[in-house]
């Protein structure tokens, strides 16, 4: 592949432009994506409408998007520049600003105005290679419209002082992360203007090793291979468990460099990799469990012995994350069971001890009554009349039947139930919640401050005073050149639905209790964070006149404050018609005004219902249903807790399936995942 290619042979770069052309370092290794994009750009450059000048690079942090954009600058001999987008970006950041300028030599204090072009305009006008980083975070649709106009092949920008036409050599490379917290899908109009797109994932192990050798000069194949396997496994585990951090090439290269200098392989794993992914003890425990399950913890320890790594700098607190059978933290010499996991409160929690609570909690707790029963402050709750309950149940039945019209479930006889809560249900709920609430309150306490910063930061422009100067208003004569941040008044932009498979097999191996605990934990956490939640159960073939039964235990539109106690009515019943249940729940969730919608399905087996809803027919219906509602913006996550985990994984996709081997983990895992989706 050529090292340089002048797309316009007659063009002469200025000294400034030559200094902006990126120079490849000796450690740079050309990727297949780089070769492919280069060849496509050169092949189509003089083909009119087929010209490729807008490119999308989408992938995780550390996957090499910016490095690839810079490499193309060197390959195409184009000056490189970039603009990093941010949430409150406005048109002046795209088009430039007119700002007041005082002439020091003029004694009359006359104010003049001067236009200052943005980096986008400079690249657009002069024919440079521009990297647009993270346009998905921009809130203002008008800014995206301005970008859309600029990215037209024969586009132009209407500036305050003139109209600028797109330079023939201008290339725009859009780089964006995929699926992170705060992530928004790339604007459809912007995506449509892309002529070439690349999906950048973590490279293969061989490529990772070659890049690490080039960057660090370290050449031990066995060490590089083991460290690469560790990074790949951590990346997969973080994705499967919705952990926000990333294990990527940057972490790998710096870890290799530390090991090459003689540092402990196992200790630097934490400082170079794990702590970059997360510092949350429960999330670290999940990652450690995955490493231990694949034997990598032992291999890294053996590698330390072989390499005679230094042990003076070992961190004695690292092994606190190992957890024994009884749920207590243990050191390595205690031979802790690394497959165990327990949710534990942090040491800095106010008003709580440092150990997990159990059923015999201290009766002096402010949330407990005299006999130790949790006290829920419900004396002033509104009373829902029987007529209101009946009308709401009727509404749910009508909507459910509408949801399945035109599907293969159209002729199935359906009833939606609203189970009533009894005094016994209340007592059972309080008893089960007693062990879960301390941990849930801790997670709520940690999550709510995050939500305060994630509500929409909306600005009211053209104010006489405020927190931000609006450069695009500087030429106005009304002196309204400030923006003031409006008080946040939005709820979290997430709505959650929990679907519980109530087939007969749920009665085995404690699955039913695990499902009830998960429902309580998820409900209490969502209510504590102001997140709308619905909890539905379903079964099939209870009777000839009731081929499908839906149990609406909790619904975000219900006014019944006692409905949470009905969760204790969750039980194993008959068969399961999963596709029909998901269709009804999905349509119901679409009524929520929140932007992000998540359905979690707890299931222990494959779909199976009379007369022939099984095998390929059921699988085909499930996949069609999931695909249809994913297009409508709903995310699906399956918690597989039974013998058919592999079949469930094929239906939902491996990246959307949680393999719950230890049912005790289920409540904590689901609550943690909801917290990470915020």
TrEMBL record:
It holds the Pfam family AAA_5. One of its GO terms (molecular function) is ATP binding. Residues 362-371 have a biased composition (Polar residues). InterPro entries: ATPase_dyneun-rel_AAA, NorD/CobT, P-loop_NTPase, VWF_A, vWFA_dom_sf. Residues 344-378 are annotated as: Disordered. Residues 344-355 have a biased composition (Basic and acidic residues). PANTHER family: NORD PROTEIN. This is AAA domain (Dynein-related subfamily). It comes from Anaerovirgula multivorans. The lineage of its organism: Bacteria, Bacillati, Bacillota, Clostridia, Peptostreptococcales.
């Amino acid at each position: 592949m050529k090292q340089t290619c002048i797309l316009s042979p007659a063009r002469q770069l200025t000294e400034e432009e030559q200094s902006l052309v990126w120079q490849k370092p000796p450690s740079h290794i050309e990727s297949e994506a780089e070769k492919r994009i280069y060849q496509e750009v050169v092949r189509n450059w003089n083909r009119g409408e087929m010209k490729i000048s807008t490119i999308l690079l989408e992938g995780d942090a550390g996957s090499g998007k910016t490095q690839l954009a810079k490499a193309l600058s060197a390959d195409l001999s184009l000056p490189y520049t970039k603009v990093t987008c941010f949430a409150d970006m406005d048109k002046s950041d795209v088009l430039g600003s007119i700002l007041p300028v005082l002439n020091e030599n003029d004694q009359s204090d006359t104010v003049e105005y001067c236009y200052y072009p943005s980096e986008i305009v400079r690249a657009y006008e002069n024919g440079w290679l521009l990297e647009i980083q993270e346009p998905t975070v921009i809130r203002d649709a008008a800014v995206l419209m301005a970008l859309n106009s600029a990215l037209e092949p024969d586009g132009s920008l209407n500036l305050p002082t003139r109209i600028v036409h797109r330079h023939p050599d201008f290339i725009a490379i859009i780089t964006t992360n995929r699926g992170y917290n705060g992530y928004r899908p790339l604007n459809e109009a912007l995506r449509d203007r892309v002529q070439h797109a690349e999906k950048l994932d973590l490279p293969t192990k061989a490529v990772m090793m070659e890049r690490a050798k080039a960057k660090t000069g370290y050449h031990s194949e066995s060490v590089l291979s083991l460290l690469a396997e560790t990074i790949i496994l951590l990346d997969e585990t973080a994705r499967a468990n919705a952990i926000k951090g990333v294990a990527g090439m940057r972490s790998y290269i710096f870890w290799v460099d530390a090991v090459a200098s003689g540092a402990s392989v196992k200790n630097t794993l934490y400082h170079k990799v794990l702590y970059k992914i997360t510092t949350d003890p429960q999330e670290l425990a999940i990652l450690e469990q995955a490493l231990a399950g694949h034997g990598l913890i032992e291999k890294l320890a053996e590698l330390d012995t072989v390499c005679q790594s230094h042990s003076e700098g070992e961190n004695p607190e690292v092994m606190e994350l190992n957890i024994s059978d009884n749920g207590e933290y243990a050191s390595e010499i205690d031979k802790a069971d690394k497959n165990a996991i327990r949710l534990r409160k942090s040491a800095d929690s106010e008003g709580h001890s440092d150990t997990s609570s159990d059923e015999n909690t201290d009766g002096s707790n402010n949330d407990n009554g005299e006999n130790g029963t949790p006290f829920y402050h419900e004396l002033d709750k509104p009373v829902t009349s029987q007529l209101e309950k009946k009308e709401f149940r009727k509404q749910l039945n009508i909507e459910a039947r509408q949801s399945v019209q035109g599907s293969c479930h159209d002729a199935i006889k359906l009833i939606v139930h609203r189970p009533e809560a009894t005094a016994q249900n209340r007592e059972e709920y309080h008893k089960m919640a007693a062990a879960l609430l301390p941990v849930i309150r801790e997670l709520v306490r940690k999550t709510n401050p995050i939500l305060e910063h994630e509500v929409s930061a909306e600005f009211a422009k053209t104010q006489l005073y405020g927190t931000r100067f609006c450069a695009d208003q500087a030429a106005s004569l009304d002196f309204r050149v400030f923006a003031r941040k409006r008080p946040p008044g939005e709820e979290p932009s997430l709505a959650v639905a929990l679907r519980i498979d109530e087939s007969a097999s749920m009665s085995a191996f404690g699955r039913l209790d695990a499902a009830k605990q998960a429902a309580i934990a998820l409900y209490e956490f969502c209510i504590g964070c102001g997140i709308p939640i619905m909890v539905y159960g379903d079964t099939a073939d209870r009777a000839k006149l009731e081929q499908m039964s839906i149990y609406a235990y909790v619904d975000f539109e219900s006014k019944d404050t006692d409905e949470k106690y009905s969760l204790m009515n969750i039980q194993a019943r008959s068969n399961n018609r999963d596709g029909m249940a998901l269709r009804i729940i999905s349509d119901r969730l679409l009524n929520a005004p929140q932007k992000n919608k998540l359905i979690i399905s707890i299931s222990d087996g494959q779909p199976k219902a009379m007369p022939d809803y099984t095998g390929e027919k059921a699988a085909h219906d499930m996949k069609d249903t999931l695909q249809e509602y994913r297009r409508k913006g709903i995310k699906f996550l399956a918690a597989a807790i039974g013998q058919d985990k592999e079949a469930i994984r094929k239906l939902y996709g491996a990246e959307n399936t949680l393999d719950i081997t230890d049912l005790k983990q289920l409540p904590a895992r689901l609550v943690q995942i909801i917290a990470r989706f915020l």
